[in-house]
Amino acid sequence: MAEHHVNTPLTEEVVMAFRAGDVVTITGHIFGLRDATLIRMFDQGVEVPADLTGAVCLHTAPGVKVDGDQFIKVSIGTTTSTRMNRFTGGLLRKGVKAITGKGGLLEDSTRLLQEHHAVYLGLVGGTAASETMQIEAIEEVWWRDLMPECLWKFRVRDFGPLIVGIDAYGRNLYLETKAQAMEAMKQLHL
User: Fold this and answer.
1) How far is 22 from 4, CA to CA, in rounded Å?
2) Which value, in Å, is the radius of gyration of the alpha carbons in the chain?
3) Count of structural domains within the chain
4) What is the extent of the structural domain holding 67?
5) Which of 50, 140, 151, 186 is the most buried (most CB within 10 A)?
6) Residue 85's pLDDT band (boundaries 50, 70, 90)?
7) pTM for this structure?
Protein backbone atom coordinates (compact mmCIF):
# COMPACT_ATOMS: atom_id res chain seq x y z
CA MET A 1 0.00 0.00 0.00
CA ALA A 2 1.40 3.36 -1.09
CA GLU A 3 0.42 6.89 -0.14
CA HIS A 4 -0.13 9.55 -2.79
CA HIS A 5 -0.45 13.29 -2.19
CA VAL A 6 -1.70 14.74 -5.48
CA ASN A 7 -2.87 18.01 -6.99
CA THR A 8 -5.71 18.49 -9.43
CA PRO A 9 -6.32 18.26 -12.27
CA LEU A 10 -5.17 14.64 -12.30
CA THR A 11 -3.15 13.32 -15.20
CA GLU A 12 -3.27 9.82 -16.61
CA GLU A 13 0.29 9.26 -15.38
CA VAL A 14 -0.70 10.10 -11.80
CA VAL A 15 -3.83 7.92 -11.87
CA MET A 16 -1.97 4.96 -13.36
CA ALA A 17 0.37 5.02 -10.34
CA PHE A 18 -2.57 4.30 -8.00
CA ARG A 19 -3.21 0.69 -7.01
CA ALA A 20 -6.23 -0.72 -5.20
CA GLY A 21 -5.69 -0.25 -1.47
CA ASP A 22 -3.43 2.80 -1.83
CA VAL A 23 -4.23 5.94 0.16
CA VAL A 24 -4.72 9.26 -1.64
CA THR A 25 -5.04 12.85 -0.43
CA ILE A 26 -5.98 15.62 -2.84
CA THR A 27 -5.19 19.33 -2.99
CA GLY A 28 -6.78 21.56 -5.59
CA HIS A 29 -10.35 21.39 -6.85
CA ILE A 30 -13.08 18.77 -6.57
CA PHE A 31 -16.44 18.94 -8.31
CA GLY A 32 -19.46 17.96 -6.22
CA LEU A 33 -22.44 16.40 -7.98
CA ARG A 34 -25.33 14.08 -7.37
CA ASP A 35 -28.37 12.48 -9.02
CA ALA A 36 -30.12 15.66 -10.22
CA THR A 37 -26.92 17.11 -11.69
CA LEU A 38 -26.11 13.88 -13.49
CA ILE A 39 -29.65 13.57 -14.84
CA ARG A 40 -29.41 17.11 -16.20
CA MET A 41 -26.05 16.38 -17.83
CA PHE A 42 -26.77 12.99 -19.34
CA ASP A 43 -30.53 12.37 -19.51
CA GLN A 44 -31.45 15.93 -20.45
CA GLY A 45 -28.28 16.58 -22.48
CA VAL A 46 -27.45 19.95 -20.91
CA GLU A 47 -23.83 20.95 -21.54
CA VAL A 48 -21.62 21.00 -18.44
CA PRO A 49 -20.62 24.57 -17.54
CA ALA A 50 -17.18 23.47 -16.29
CA ASP A 51 -14.20 21.70 -17.82
CA LEU A 52 -14.02 18.25 -16.22
CA THR A 53 -10.75 17.22 -17.86
CA GLY A 54 -8.63 15.57 -15.16
CA ALA A 55 -11.35 16.24 -12.59
CA VAL A 56 -12.17 14.54 -9.33
CA CYS A 57 -15.95 14.27 -8.82
CA LEU A 58 -17.44 13.80 -5.36
CA HIS A 59 -20.92 12.33 -4.92
CA THR A 60 -22.47 14.88 -2.55
CA ALA A 61 -25.38 17.21 -1.90
CA PRO A 62 -23.81 19.55 0.66
CA GLY A 63 -25.49 21.36 3.48
CA VAL A 64 -24.76 25.08 3.10
CA LYS A 65 -26.04 28.45 4.27
CA VAL A 66 -26.61 31.09 1.62
CA ASP A 67 -25.62 34.68 2.38
CA GLY A 68 -26.22 36.78 -0.72
CA ASP A 69 -23.96 35.28 -3.38
CA GLN A 70 -21.83 33.47 -0.79
CA PHE A 71 -22.24 29.81 0.09
CA ILE A 72 -21.06 29.00 3.59
CA LYS A 73 -20.27 25.35 4.22
CA VAL A 74 -22.16 23.64 7.03
CA SER A 75 -21.75 19.93 6.31
CA ILE A 76 -20.25 18.55 3.13
CA GLY A 77 -20.35 14.79 3.34
CA THR A 78 -20.53 12.17 0.67
CA THR A 79 -23.31 9.90 -0.50
CA THR A 80 -23.58 6.36 -1.84
CA SER A 81 -22.19 6.00 -5.34
CA THR A 82 -23.84 2.83 -6.61
CA ARG A 83 -27.15 4.52 -7.42
CA MET A 84 -25.24 6.86 -9.75
CA ASN A 85 -23.39 3.99 -11.41
CA ARG A 86 -25.15 4.46 -14.77
CA PHE A 87 -23.53 7.88 -15.21
CA THR A 88 -19.93 6.64 -14.82
CA GLY A 89 -19.26 6.27 -18.55
CA GLY A 90 -20.54 9.76 -19.31
CA LEU A 91 -18.33 11.34 -16.65
CA LEU A 92 -15.28 9.45 -17.88
CA ARG A 93 -15.93 10.50 -21.49
CA LYS A 94 -15.93 14.12 -20.25
CA GLY A 95 -12.40 13.58 -18.91
CA VAL A 96 -13.05 12.82 -15.23
CA LYS A 97 -10.12 10.86 -13.76
CA ALA A 98 -11.47 10.04 -10.29
CA ILE A 99 -14.91 9.50 -8.81
CA THR A 100 -15.24 9.71 -5.04
CA GLY A 101 -18.04 8.54 -2.79
CA LYS A 102 -19.19 5.77 -0.48
CA GLY A 103 -19.75 2.12 -1.26
CA GLY A 104 -18.02 1.74 -4.60
CA LEU A 105 -19.42 1.24 -8.09
CA LEU A 106 -20.77 -1.82 -9.88
CA GLU A 107 -18.86 -4.25 -12.10
CA ASP A 108 -19.61 -2.48 -15.40
CA SER A 109 -18.07 0.70 -13.99
CA THR A 110 -14.93 -1.24 -13.07
CA ARG A 111 -14.48 -2.02 -16.78
CA LEU A 112 -15.17 1.61 -17.75
CA LEU A 113 -12.63 2.92 -15.23
CA GLN A 114 -10.07 0.53 -16.69
CA GLU A 115 -10.86 1.61 -20.28
CA HIS A 116 -10.58 5.32 -19.44
CA HIS A 117 -7.60 5.01 -17.06
CA ALA A 118 -9.55 6.39 -14.13
CA VAL A 119 -10.19 5.36 -10.51
CA TYR A 120 -12.81 5.22 -7.79
CA LEU A 121 -11.66 6.67 -4.47
CA GLY A 122 -13.66 5.55 -1.46
CA LEU A 123 -14.52 7.56 1.62
CA VAL A 124 -15.57 6.14 4.94
CA GLY A 125 -19.15 6.95 5.89
CA GLY A 126 -19.65 9.32 8.81
CA THR A 127 -16.70 11.57 8.03
CA ALA A 128 -18.62 14.66 6.91
CA ALA A 129 -17.13 16.82 9.67
CA SER A 130 -13.60 15.98 8.53
CA GLU A 131 -14.47 16.42 4.84
CA THR A 132 -16.05 19.80 5.54
CA MET A 133 -12.88 21.02 7.28
CA GLN A 134 -10.73 19.91 4.31
CA ILE A 135 -12.81 22.01 1.92
CA GLU A 136 -11.28 25.47 2.02
CA ALA A 137 -13.87 27.22 -0.11
CA ILE A 138 -16.90 26.81 -2.32
CA GLU A 139 -15.66 28.59 -5.45
CA GLU A 140 -18.48 28.05 -7.95
CA VAL A 141 -22.06 26.80 -7.90
CA TRP A 142 -23.85 26.03 -11.16
CA TRP A 143 -27.50 25.03 -11.67
CA ARG A 144 -28.67 26.52 -8.38
CA ASP A 145 -32.24 25.53 -9.19
CA LEU A 146 -31.19 21.96 -8.27
CA MET A 147 -30.16 22.96 -4.72
CA PRO A 148 -28.59 21.11 -2.95
CA GLU A 149 -27.82 18.82 -5.92
CA CYS A 150 -26.13 21.60 -7.90
CA LEU A 151 -22.78 21.29 -9.60
CA TRP A 152 -20.24 22.51 -7.03
CA LYS A 153 -16.59 23.48 -7.34
CA PHE A 154 -14.74 23.08 -4.05
CA ARG A 155 -11.16 24.13 -3.30
CA VAL A 156 -9.63 21.46 -1.06
CA ARG A 157 -6.41 20.92 0.83
CA ASP A 158 -5.29 17.41 1.84
CA PHE A 159 -8.75 16.01 1.13
CA GLY A 160 -8.83 12.47 2.42
CA PRO A 161 -7.58 9.99 3.25
CA LEU A 162 -9.25 8.31 0.29
CA ILE A 163 -8.79 4.62 -0.46
CA VAL A 164 -8.31 3.48 -4.05
CA GLY A 165 -11.29 1.14 -4.09
CA ILE A 166 -11.20 0.51 -7.84
CA ASP A 167 -8.00 1.11 -9.76
CA ALA A 168 -7.35 1.73 -13.45
CA TYR A 169 -6.17 -1.86 -13.86
CA GLY A 170 -9.58 -3.37 -13.07
CA ARG A 171 -9.01 -4.36 -9.46
CA ASN A 172 -12.15 -3.70 -7.38
CA LEU A 173 -11.79 -4.05 -3.60
CA TYR A 174 -15.56 -3.90 -3.15
CA LEU A 175 -16.15 -6.94 -5.37
CA GLU A 176 -13.19 -8.77 -3.80
CA THR A 177 -14.54 -8.15 -0.30
CA LYS A 178 -18.01 -9.31 -1.32
CA ALA A 179 -16.59 -12.52 -2.79
CA GLN A 180 -14.56 -13.15 0.39
CA ALA A 181 -17.65 -12.58 2.53
CA MET A 182 -19.71 -14.98 0.41
CA GLU A 183 -17.00 -17.63 0.73
CA ALA A 184 -16.89 -17.13 4.50
CA MET A 185 -20.68 -17.51 4.64
CA LYS A 186 -20.42 -20.85 2.83
CA GLN A 187 -17.87 -22.03 5.37
CA LEU A 188 -20.21 -21.13 8.24
CA HIS A 189 -22.86 -23.47 6.85
CA LEU A 190 -20.62 -26.54 6.75
Assistant:
1) 8
2) 17
3) 1
4) 3-188
5) 151
6) very high
7) 0.91
